[in-house]
Structures are given as structure tokens and as C-alpha cells.
């Protein structure tokens, strides 16, 4: 089973913390003012875990596939 990261975009407040921490994994849609996942798997788990911890609304999660 592999882990993939995802963002609950309806909860995202557009702070861009995740994009600043892991720009290879997360992107930002300025028009919608939400972050999105560029790379669901293969990014640094350590970086993603830091982004999860740093998210003020806790909308970044791991899911098992």
C-alpha cells in the first residue's frame, strides 16, 4: 500500500505555508486562492509531514492507496 498526500481544498485558507515548505509537492491556484497537490507521491515525506504540522487549518492529509 502506498501513501499519497492530498489537500481538502474546501478547508484551505490559502496561507501558502505548504507551498513555501515543499514547492515540489504543492502548488497554489491564485484564482481560487487554494493550494493543490502537484505530486501525490514521491515527494519528501519529511517535508510533507512538516507541511501537515504547519497547516493552520489541518487540511493536508495522508491517504493510503
TrEMBL record:
Cofactor(s) listed in the protein's UniProt record: [4Fe-4S] cluster
Top-level taxon in the UniProt lineage: Bacteria
GO molecular function, one term: 4 iron, 4 sulfur cluster binding
Pfam families from the UniProt entry: Fer4_13
Stored InterPro entries: 3Fe4S_ferredoxin, 4Fe4S_Fe-S-bd, 4Fe4S_Fe_S_CS, ET_Ferredoxin
Domain 4Fe-4S ferredoxin-type residue range list: 3-31
Metal-binding among keywords: yes
Keyword terms: 4Fe-4S, Electron transport, Iron, Iron-sulfur, Metal-binding, Transport
UniProt function note: Ferredoxins are iron-sulfur proteins that transfer electrons in a wide variety of metabolic reactions.
The name this protein goes by in its record: Ferredoxin
Species, as recorded: Desulfobacter hydrogenophilus
